[in-house]
Write a structure and sequence with these properties.
- The structure is a single chain.
- The chain has 24 helices and five strands.
- The chain has 650 residues and is mostly helical.
- Helix 8 runs antiparallel to helix 18, helix 9 packs antiparallel against helix 17 and helix 22 packs across helix 24.
- The N terminus is likely disordered.
Length: 650
């Protein structure tokens, strides 16, 4: 047993109390760590996005100058747009919450499904691109081992993330910093070494553009440039990761998020535009089994022993950063599942990010999905980039459209600079929508159709889950009416409760009927045993988003009304009772804190909750229901508290 425990701790890390306040500070990220953990996806995408754009230009490589300028500008425009998302939604959720609250739940579903597929593809494309960098150092016959190496890496990242987010970032931080130092140095050196060719490149670019336009016209010219620009759209991936995970940042979250976005935008625009300029100045020729970065760095460093050693280190750092970028999918993906689960689009088991077990479920789901897609496309980065960029820009476009709508609606109540924010939001929306349309049209038959099929499949599954929850909610509403007990209008004065007497803590959800079922069962099974009753409830609400206050007030009224009903029901039978309530973004965490307060006052307290039992029980109903009471029971038992779960058949 000791050996088994040691192996478990080695794989998953030592057990942590997720409800200890110190754990939140331990797990939260300052701007620098967030740049490493969440920004690695964006920075690593510069290793394959610019290459795809440059290759798409064919023989007209001088047009890459336009791509470099447009890429740097686009990064900052989109980043400024996402700074507004961080301000409006400082509790996380990013593109999904923007689309849901500003454009409607079904638009939010589309954005959420796109994000889920996006993070799966983040893992796949970063893994494949990283292995391309490594195999650029190896003999060509070794290429047939590349897919096996990619599969092994994904399994390794799954195991690494089982130990926790901050732990994985600390392991990968030296890789990130090494990439920044070495690649920034090589970009600067490569450009300075060809500084005399910069002005001729500008002149030749203008000259070639004029010749092309005179020969074929403006439309073919714009079509070629925009096509290459859209294929390089993978460069902008990862910019949404910060807004999706603001809840993981150190307070003050908004300031931390903005600093993180600044670090990301500056580093990404420099590397992406820098790589394109290197391609333009050094003119690398594509070769089998070699990335353009490997070829151009080889040209810069030469064939000396020192040059070859430096090239190996550079490509290994590049590959390692891409693996850190793949890790972003594991860090950010479960948060999207959690937000969608709160709205009923995903199974309830994904909503509790305060429990490591639930996060681990998401990690395994994303890892296996990425592995499946990687095997399907045989690790081809050119195919994965197309699949990847489509969903990234679906989320970008919907988020920026939502911001545009928001500032148009709030212009009367907004601050004086609302026009400036509207301008940026709308400009970023036009850029994002244009890239999305061009990518869809040009790459639909080259693999883009698969992204659409997968995203539609996710949406279809979400609709089925939502339909099931609506059907169950309808039955529970009927039970609310059936189990509602009449209350007396008389006011009865009760003696103060004796905290040393046996106390029953009843966990109350949003359905009155479920709570009444639990209470009646306790009274029937333990007649005259419990002398006090405490009713405990927690509400899930995004208390820090722009619409959170209205939602909080509405929920507070509903929850307090329900709890007051139960307290009055006990009072009319001369049973001392009281209620405890709190609100937050994780119901398990809030209930755990409330029960700690109850245990401090009533040391002889036993807690009760209900779980749903279906007539036609199967793995689907077990997967979709009862995660909250089961999770609470595991946590309570670890803390020495008792929770009895009472079945309720519907």
């Amino acid at each position: 047993m000791r050996l088994k425990a040691r192996l478990k701790n080695l794989l998953f890390g030592h057990p942590l109390n997720p409800f200890n306040p110190a754990i939140l500070r331990h797990a939260s990220l300052v701007a620098f760590l967030a740049w490493v953990g969440l920004g690695a996806d964006g920075l690593s995408s510069s290793c394959y996005g610019p290459e795809e754009a440059f290759i798409a230009l064919g023989t007209h490589t001088h047009f890459a100058l336009y791509i470099a300028i447009a890429t740097a500008i686009t990064v900052f425009v989109i980043s400024l747009g996402y700074n507004q998302v961080i301000e409006l939604f400082p509790s996380g959720g990013g593109g999904y919450k923007v689309a849901t609250q500003l454009l409607g739940p079904y638009v939010g579903l589309l954005s959420g499904a796109a994000l889920i597929v996006d993070y799966v593809l983040t893992i796949a494309v970063s893994t494949a691109s990283g292995m391309d960098a490594i195999f650029s150092l190896l003999p060509t016959p070794w290429l047939h081992h590349k897919l096996w190496a990619e599969a092994g890496l994904i399994l390794f990242l799954i195991a690494l993330n089982m130990r926790g987010m901050k732990e994985s970032i600390k392991v990968l931080m030296p890789v990130f910093l090494g990439f920044v130092l070495v690649h920034f140095t090589l970009i600067i050196y490569g450009i300075v070494a060809h500084r005399h060719g910069l002005f001729p490149v500008v002149h030749e670019t203008v000259q070639e553009s004029n010749h092309f336009i005179q020969a074929l016209g403006w439309l073919p010219f714009l079509g070629l440039v925009l096509h290459a620009y859209s294929l390089g759209s993978g460069t902008y991936t990862g910019l949404e990761a910060v807004s999706n995970n603001v809840n993981r940042l150190r307070e003050p979250r908004v300031a931390t998020g903005k600093w993180t976005m600044l670090y990301m935008a500056t580093s990404l625009s420099f590397t992406a535009a820098g790589f394109i300029l290197l391609y333009l100045l050094w003119q690398p020729v594509p070769a089998l089994g070699q990335t353009l970065n490997a070829i151009v760095f080889h040209s810069i460093l030469g064939d000396s022993h020192f040059g070859q050693m430096t090239l190996s280190v550079t490509l290994l750092l590049e590959a390692s950063l891409l693996f850190v970028g793949a890790n972003t999918g594991f860090l950010a993906g479960p948060a999207v599942l959690s937000n969608m689960a709160i709205d009923g689009w995903m199974p309830n088991r994904f909503r509790h990010l305060s429990t490591r077990l639930v996060v681990q479920n998401g990690i395994i789901l994303f890892g296996i999905s990425a592995l499946s897609i990687l095997v399907w496309c045989e690790g081809a980065v050119s195919v994965l980039v197309v699949l990847y960029s489509i969903n990234v820009f679906i989320t970008f476009t919907l988020s920026l459209l939502g911001l545009t709508v928001y500032w148009l609606r709030k212009r009367q109540k907004a601050s004086a600079n609302w026009r400036w924010r509207l301008f940026f939001s709308f400009g970023a929306f036009l850029i994002s929508a244009s890239i999305l349309c061009i990518t869809l049209v040009s790459k639909l038959q080259s693999g883009g159709w698969l992204t659409i099929v997968i995203t539609c499949a996710v949406i279809f599954l979400c609709l089925l889950v939502k339909q099931h929850y609506r059907r169950v909610a309808k039955k529970l509403t009927e039970l609310d009416h059936q189990l509602r007990q009449p209350l007396s209008d008389e006011d009865t004065s009760l003696p103060a409760p004796d905290p040393q007497q046996p106390t029953a803590g009843i966990l109350i959800g949003k359905n009155l009927g479920v709570g009444m079922h639990t209470l009646l069962c306790v009274l029937r099974m333990f007649p005259h045993h419990f002398k006090n009753f405490v009713f405990i409830s927690a509400g899930i609400v995004d208390v820090q988003s722009f619409s959170g206050r209205d939602e909080l007030e509405k929920m507070r009224l509903e929850v307090n009304k329900t709890l007051a009903y139960f307290v009055k029901y006990c009072h009319q039978y001369d049973i001392p009772a009281e209620a405890h309530v709190d609100f937050g973004i994780d119901i398990v965490e809030e209930l755990d804190q409330l029960t700690e307060e109850v245990c401090a006052k009533y040391p002889n307290c036993i807690f009760f909750s209900s779980k749903l039992v279906f007539k036609h029980d199967n793995w689907i109903t077990r997967f979709l229901h009862n995660e909250t009471p089961n999770t609470l029971q595991r946590q309570f038992h670890m803390q020495g508290k008792e929770l009895v779960i009472i079945p309720m058949r519907i």
